[in-house]
Amino acid sequence: xxxxxxxxxxxxxxxxxxxxxxxxxxxxxxxxxxxxxxxxxxxxxxxxxxxxxxxxxxxxxxxxxxxxxxxxxxxxxxxxxxxxxxxxxxxxxxxxxxxxxxxxxxxxxxxxxxxxxxxxxxxxxxxxxxxxxxxxxxxxxxxxxxxxxxxxxxxxxxxxxxxxxxxxxxxxxxxxxxxxxxxxxxxxxxxxxxxxxxxxxxxxxxxxxxxxxxxxxxxxxxxxxxxxxxxxxxxxxxxxxxxxxxxxxxxxxxxxxxxxxxxxxxxxxxxxxxxxxxxxxxxxxxxxxxxxxxxxxxxxxxxxxxxxxxxxxxxxxxxxxxxxxxxxxxxxxxxxxxxxxxxxxxxxxxxxxxxxxxxxxxxxxxxxxxxxxxxxxxxxxxxxxxxxxxxxxxxxxxxxxxx
Length: 403
Fold this sequence. Notes:
CATH architecture of the largest domain: 3-Layer(aba) Sandwich
Number of strands: 13
Shape: globular
Structural class: alpha/beta
Helix content: 25-40%
Order of helices and strands: EHEHEHHEEHEHEHEHEHEHEHEHEHHH
Number of domains: 2
Strand order of the largest sheet: 3-2-1-4-5-6-7
């Protein structure tokens, strides 16, 4: 069976790229088709053998096929967002008629419905399965990484997005089968595309984060945030609350909101000599594992997250999570009020306000003292979202659909 993998673009390395990585392990001979890639970017390095990633042998010979947009100056760096109306031309430029199965990994760049029926050989039908991380958030009113500023920009985006919504709906009708990365996303697929889907949670490398000791170490004194520093992730809530209360907070991640968050922490700190909020920027895998394993709890305040891999990584390390009760995290984190003593994995807060988060942290502190959070139970719960489980469920789904 000839298989092709299609991914939005190779720029950042996040949850969608982790899915692509796992799909590459399932189908090692499948090439990756993408709108464009940025050489040297974290995602590109994961799939191409480079000097900085020479030890990554798994994807050393991975074949990456980019569209014509790759050759347009500044398209990958600056123009792909304002020129997103070109997406239909980009995906229609590929010919997938030589493949038996095409698996699309879709979120931002309307990467679905890429198999054009009219161009196929009449004796051969290419099956398309779309693993949907979410219908494009910017098209359907969900918080996004970038905010539109200025009247002209907002007007332009309004016009372009209308066109893109029409195309996105039509492309969704060409997909043979949808896989959603959460029940939250399955509901969005039903609402916006009028299509059914099967939920297969994305892969989390739980083994990497789990504590391999007979006894768990005493919880650390700091709270932890792991996130891209963009407005939709609402890291400002955690920074503001911890700065005001004088609670130690370590922030892992980079992004356009970095300087604003640093300024916020400095302005609100309760310690005249030193802020309790520490910005670590990007850290390597080894450092991230240690931060997870030695923290007190992870704060995850992202709005309407599609699934949320960070909370599962935290739980894989046996650590509880304080999460904004919106989106996919409701499917992975067990609130204390539902699980009870020793059978919960975190604390919910809602709405997305500093007051609500403050109450949640106070509640967490009280529950922590009462021993509500059992590290062994939390770590075992995280195994439900492992990479091995993802690969097994994907293979089972594919085998059931491919004749």
